[in-house]
Write a structure and sequence with these properties.
By secondary structure, the chain is α+β, with helices and mostly antiparallel strands. The chain is 56% helix and 16% strand. The chain has helices at residues 2-21, 59-67, 182-217, 220-239, 242-247, 261-276, 279-282, 284-306, 308-337, 342-366, 379-455, 460-504, 523-543, 579-590, 617-626; strands at 32-34, 42-43, 49-53, 73-74, 86-91, 93-95, 101-107, 114-121, 124-131, 147-153, 157-158, 161-167, 177-180, 509-515, 547-554, 558-565, 594-599, 605-612. β8 and β9 (124-131) form a beta hairpin. The N and C termini lie far apart (119 Å).
Length: 627
């Protein structure tokens, strides 16, 4: 009988022990004591007990593993970043005041796959909240992009045990927990969202202005600056979990490509670095090196986009190596370029200091080395604002300096042009006097001879020969005059003058259009001018046209010239040997171009010729020297 009583007593105590073993006090050995109203942020990690598992257990399986000693406690500062483990954070509260206390338990790192809050009451598990970036916004109990949980602990009571299951932390931060006053927390959230709205609006306006202005004034640095600002904005928009609230909620089928923003930032950063430090000008090997890093990052983005889930881990290992190379090589680059581009290097360092300080401070806070209350300021965002402003001021100063230099050069060119024009006018006056003398002597003498021959009934062939000689002399003198005009005024201005002069003496509508045309002052411009002049003369004298259209279009590798009329046309096969057509073709071929003419009866005439850019190198060099 005594043995039976003893067994019953042992069983009773064992049952109590098992219940205690599975209850509130087994899995966490600390309790946060609430002895007053919560008025400021309190770091909560030291009041938690943390377990880590590589497998995605449910809570019942986890508790069983803990009981059997297969899962041990880990660092109570919770999970480090770059991990795929699951973390189970146990905690409880005890309110020793005489009133109910409400507060917020929050995590300062919203960029986490999922967080589940569960309460344990003996053997009963109740899921209270589910949140995280992998949880659709409309399925969250608390509609917020932040990770926080409201609590209410009754007066003079101890709470049940709570468990936070944290899944797949892919962030550089730990899982910092803090307790906040409810009213103060919601107010701080409103202020933070307002700041974020101003920040993203500022970036959007800056992006639009930078890229538009960069395209308008052809400044690559402005375009790269806008691209860099865009990637920063997109990254922080995703990092602060606004993609979950605004993008994935509206477009639920969109995959989470937020991880691809990091390679995008690296591409933008390296390209901006190339432009800002003028690597192409100062160090071609560094220019090639950073472009290679950009290309690798672009390939990573493409691979992730094509096959995101399968290749993510392996590709991101490559990406982090590329990131390390970039981080290590940046200070080396700044050191190498210091003497060559001192102002740009100093500005670059000053701009990077705020964002790097904010990033490192936020990371050290998360690691527990700095007070957690510093995280209520968006340190990285604040740092990025200073970075963007410093770069903006530096770029505007550089562009303004270039504009001042350009204006000085322009004024110098104007003065040079005035001096050249004055010299040309003096030379032209002397030349005109000389040509006038030539006309008075050579031409007048030959015309007198022809007149004498006609009186004496000289042989017609001899007279024609003398007339041809006079024609040739006049052509040579005219050529000298036209060539001098083209050297000063250029092909574009000379053609416009030609059109105006011709239009005064005819009813035909003549128009000329230039597209990206680099003006020509070289001797080759004379060939082009003569061809266009002859084409206009032919159209006026033979085509019976009402309209002549001339187009000159500059391309990367060639310049195209087109002359169209709406006249009666002609049979091209009957005119291949005509002198004027052959003259035009010969002139164009002499400067390395190709010449085509197409015409059909009653369908007008089209003349096309093209001058390759390589044939114009000397012309362009002369133009650049003049400008």
């Amino acid at each position: 009988m005594n043995k039976i009583k003893f067994k019953i007593l042992v069983s009773f105590f064992l049952l109590i022990a098992v219940n205690s073993f599975s209850g509130n006090y087994l899995f966490t050995d600390t309790t946060y004591i609430i002895d007053n109203e919560i008025t400021e942020s309190i770091i909560f990690n030291d009041y938690t007990t943390v377990y880590k598992s590589e497998t995605n257990y449910n809570l019942h399986q986890l508790l069983s593993k803990i009981k059997k000693g297969k899962i041990k406690k880990t660092d109570n500062s919770a999970a480090r970043g770059f991990t795929k483990d699951y973390f189970w954070i146990f905690f409880r509260f005890k309110n020793i005041t005489n009133k109910d206390i409400e507060f917020i338990l929050k995590n300062s790192t919203p960029n986490i796959d999922s967080v589940i809050l569960v309460s344990i009451n003996n053997n009963r598990y109740d899921t209270l909240y589910i949140t995280g970036k992998k949880i659709p916004f409309n399925k969250r109990i608390i509609k917020s992009n932040q990770i926080f949980f409201p609590f209410k602990i009754k007066a003079n009571t101890e709470s049940k045990t709570f468990v936070l299951k944290v899944s797949r932390i892919g962030d550089t931060m730990v899982f910092p927990l803090s307790i906040e006053n409810t009213k103060q927390y919601y107010k701080s959230v409103e202020n933070r969202r307002l700041f974020h709205f101003i920040y993203f609006s500022f970036l959007f306006v800056l992006l639009f202005i930078s890229i538009a202005l960069g395209i308008l004034i052809k400044q690559r640095i402005l375009i790269m600056y806008g691209f860099y600002a865009l990637t920063l904005g997109l990254y922080f928009f995703s990092y602060k979990a606004y993609t979950v609230e605004f993008v994935y909620q509206v477009f639920p089928s969109i995959k989470d490509y937020s991880s691809m923003l990091k390679p995008f930032i690296l591409v933008a950063f390296t390209q901006f670095l190339i432009s800002f430090l003028e690597l192409k000008k100062h160090n071609k090997w560094l220019y090639i090196y950073y472009n290679t890093l950009s290309i690798i990052s672009v390939l990573i983005i493409i691979i992730l986009f094509i096959n995101y889930s399968v290749t993510k881990l392996y590709v991101f290992i490559i990406f982090y190596y590329v990131s390390i190379f970039t981080l290590v090589s940046t200070p080396v680059t700044l050191t190498l370029l210091y003497k060559k581009n001192k102002a740009a290097v100093i500005t670059f360092i000053l701009a990077l200091v705020p964002i790097m300080t904010g990033t490192l401070t936020a990371m050290f806070v998360g690691l527990g080395y700095f007070p957690g209350r510093l995280l209520k300021y968006d340190l990285m965002l604040v740092g990025s604002v200073f970075e963007i402003i410093i770069f903006a001021i530096a770029i505007m100063y550089r562009i303004n300096r270039l504009e001042v230099s350009r204006r000085k050069l322009l004024l110098k060119n104007v003065e040079t042009q005035k001096e050249m024009l004055k010299a040309y006018q003096t030379g032209s006056k002397n030349k005109n006097t000389r040509i006038s003398n030539e006309l008075d002597t050579r031409i007048t003498e030959k015309l007198d001879n022809i007149q004498e021959m006609l009186k004496n009934n000289a042989d017609k062939d001899i007279i024609k020969k003398h007339i041809s000689a006079v024609y040739e002399d006049v052509r040579i003198i005219s050529h000298k005059l036209s060539h001098q005009t083209l050297k000063i005024a250029g092909l574009k201005s000379s053609l416009k003058t030609l059109i105006i002069d011709v239009s005064k003496n005819t009813q035909i509508e003549i128009s000329i259009n230039f597209l990206d045309f680099i003006d020509l002052f070289d001797k080759k411009a004379m060939y082009i001018y003569n061809v266009i002049q002859e084409a206009i003369d032919n159209a006026i004298n033979h085509s019976q046209c009402k309209k002549i259209t001339i187009e000159i279009i500059e391309h990367d590798d060639e310049t195209n010239f087109t002359i169209d009329d709406d006249g009666i046309g002609f049979d091209i096969n009957e005119l291949k040997t005509k002198t004027n057509i052959l003259n035009m073709q010969t002139r164009i071929e002499l400067i390395g171009g190709i010449f085509e003419i197409n015409s059909y009866p009653n369908k007008g005439t089209n003349i096309f010729f093209s001058i390759p850019k390589e044939q114009n190198k000397n012309i362009q060099n002369e133009n650049n020297a003049r400008n």
